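dumping this here before i forget
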Amino acid sequence: MREREPGRIYERMKWLIRFLLIFIILALAPAGCAWLGDSGLDTEQGETTIAPLSDKVRVSDHQLKMDAGPLLDYRTFIPISTGAPSRAKHQAEVAGKQPWVILAHGFLRDQRHMQGLAVALAEAGFPVATLNSRHDSPISGGHVANSQDMMELARALGAKRVIYAGFSAGALAALLAARNDPSATGVLTLDLVDSQDLGRRAAEGLAVPLIALTGMPSNCNANNNAAPVYRVASALSLTPIPQASHCDFESPSDRLCRLVCKQPPNQTDDQSEPNAVQGQVIQTALTGIRQLAGS
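structure:
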């Protein structure tokens, strides 16, 4: 047993060094991980059409003025229909057929890391909006405020029905939003991480179905600390994906995430993108959204 102790100490020190490095990097970035994302939105016209990620999806960047604080940067993914006479009318037609999906990224990440799932959902016919969290920082998750931003965005989009979805801390914000928005028809969580028991308490009063995807226990999902959330949810569909790391639930991910988060034995810190597990996550999430939409 004594011979193994130095190895254990080394492993602990390695993870401690990783966390210290990532904390220093993020603390030096004024907008958290926004520096990893996209630049320059059109604030005068309120909309910027970006280079197509799919020939079936129209992607546009927007900003929303909030009651307090900075503007909310968000991106819409709208299924393309050649028969629509105008963008505005087409968006209204799509939203009338399917609920909006409001999709949140993980802690100190940005909306760029959810675009793989967003495009897949839009290609399947769902209007999707991702957003950059305004309230997380290296010392605070801002979960309640981020959930309020998600609800405000849904209202601004005129969503009569909405599915809230998110990854990690974004999944917690999505759960809180679904708990408090009467327009919510369901919530999809991707490797949810709870904080201060917020998720469990929200799940106790959740009136809509919860579809949850979970990965392997790791340092980045607090060893699956959302298990109490799933135990109290009254309408739960839980799908474990044990071969998935925490990073596999965002798309695209990056080496920064894989450096910080423990990886399965078959994955490495510098694994190329995308991988088969991420594809499985996206397809499983798409199935869940279809169930929540009743389609």
